[in-house]
Amino acid sequence: MKIETLFRHMREAYRGVKRNTWMSFAAISAVAVTLFIFGIFLIFAFNVRYMVAELNKQLVIRASLEESITNQGQEELLKQVRGISGVKTAKLVPKEEGLRRFKADWGDDDAEKLFEGFDKDNPLPDVIEIEPQNPDTIKQIEEKVKGLRGVAETTSGDQVTDKLVSLSSFTRNIVLVFGLGLAVLAAFLISNTIKLTIIARKREIEIQRLVGASNWFIRWPFFIEGAFIGIVGAIVPTVIVLTLYQVAYTTLGAGEASSVLKMMPLLSLGTYVALSIFALGAAIGTTGSLISVRRFLRV
Amino acid sequence: MHDVWKVYPNGVEALRGIDVRIDYGEFVYIVGPSGAGKSSFIKLMYREEKPTHGVVLINGVNVKRVRDWKIPHVRRKIGVVFQDFKLLPHMTAFENVAFAMEAIEMPRRKIKPRVEEVLELVGLSDRMHALPSQLSGGEQQRVAIARAIVNNPSFIIADEPTGNLDPENSWDIMYLLEEINQRGTTIVMATHNKEIVNTMRQRVIAIEQGVIVRDELGGEYGYED
């Protein structure tokens, strides 16, 4: 398409939007509401993925060793663990080290006093910490480690991720059904707006056909009008959703290293979310025009 | 056209076995009573309708077989003029004519000189910035003719172009069409105007009840109305 023609189509599309101000406004609002919900869902989904990834990074299997095991036995066991396929690292954490970490986690000056007795009679076991290459194989590795002689018990922290993943897929389904319904409504409103434009331009279209305008020449302005409504409808929800996110991010202190809640930083998330919202807006808009163009525009 | 039939979905047989050939550069009147099939005949020529049976060749293209996306290219070779002018009311005379060139994506630098040229040809150079509502019926029809010829079609189809005009304006339009014909453009004109047909003698094709009943060079109108 020539640039000149493109500009002409854009002018025509803009005229269409202006001609049916109220219908356009209603359509834009419907798109905005749809995209707002979609945006919230998107942020939620992105963050769940991010959190799962972050948690997976911290995933380790802790194998407590039997007390009776000798130093040599520990070394032997460590070798065996490292030999299991899928194990990235395995290191021995002696009980003294374990106690030190325990106190540090407590983080209180009183801890020294509180756990004073433990220095003499340390109740913690020696532990082998195992990091898997792939978080998905953690269960298999754990099973194998559990079977080794000298291992008393094993724990791994994947229960949290399991819950998070199942919660997120449940929420996702609800939001998707709801969002889909709204998207259909928005597309329907847009198709109605386009229908009004088609009716208003009936005579122009008739003449364009008579003088031999190509079918696409006649259709383009309507698609642009639909996309325009969709894209304008995307601006407000993008701004609101991202502002809310920034507020939540700062309030919850999610960016700080010590925070339990790991949220994606605004900059990387914002780009994805904004692009997705705008793309969906344009898609809803062009779908809406397509419906009307197919039904009412005889070319 | 060869053995052309047009039967509408409601069963009306508008055309029944039409055989006719119109050559480049001809001026042809299509006459006949109302409801005889003139409109259907005309509509087949600019591919508004498809024949139910038979072959319609326009510039050598079989309009029944031509693919939908190619129809616009067939129409670019045809200019159409209607009784009710079909001008866009919110556009000036100049814009109405330019609209036809924009529709086939002519570059802007070519549009202005060409539009001015045809508006001069139809005698409206000084009225080109007037809206249709500010023009007389005759002037409006001249704008419509300018629009029909602006893309250099090889023939013009005029459906009762003088039907809404007083005698004086009708003659002006006829002289204009004659001039366009003399420049080499084929003209096919459906009309009810007895005086014009009998004065400006050309080939006359009479259609009655969907059949060509008369086809003569320099013929007469042949009806009383």
Low-confidence region ranges of chain B: none
Number of strands of chain B: 11
Through-space gap between termini of chain B:
28 Å
The SSE order of chain B reads EEEHEEEHEHHHEHEHEE
Walk me through what this model shows.
The complex is a heterodimer of chains A (299) and B (225). Chain A has 299 residues and is α+β, with helices and mostly antiparallel strands. Chain A has two domains: 3-56 and 161-296, no CATH class; 60-156, Alpha-Beta Plaits. Chain A is 74% helix and 8% strand. Chain A is built from eleven helices and four strands; from the N terminus they run H-H-E-H-E-H-H-H-E-H-E-H-H-H-H. Chain A has helices spanning 3-19, 21-58, 71-83, 95-106, 110-114, 116-120, 138-146, 158-200, 202-210, 215-252, 266-296, and strands spanning 61-65, 87-93, 127-132, 151-156. In chain A, strands 2-3-1-4 form a four-stranded antiparallel beta sheet. In chain A, helix 1 (3-19) packs across helix 10. The radius of gyration of chain A is 30 Å and the shape is elongated. Chain B is α/β, with parallel strands linked by helices. Chain B has one domain (2-216): Rossmann fold (3-Layer(aba) Sandwich), CATH 3.40.50. Chain B contains seven helices and eleven strands. Chain B has helices at 38-45, 71-75, 93-103, 108-121, 137-149, 167-182, 194-199; strands at residues 2-7, 13-18, 27-31, 53-55, 57-58, 61-62, 78-82, 155-159, 186-190, 203-208, 211-216. Chain B has a six-stranded mixed beta sheet with strand order 7-8-9-3-10-11, with helices on both faces. Chain B has a three-stranded antiparallel beta sheet with strand order 2-1-4, with no helix packed on it. In chain B, a hairpin with a 2-residue loop joins strand 5 and strand 6. In chain B, helix 3 runs parallel beside helix 5 (137-149). The A-B interface holds A 2, 4-5, 8, 203-204, 206-215, 217 and B 46, 68-69, 72-80, 86, 88, 99-100, 102-105, 107-108, 147, 151.
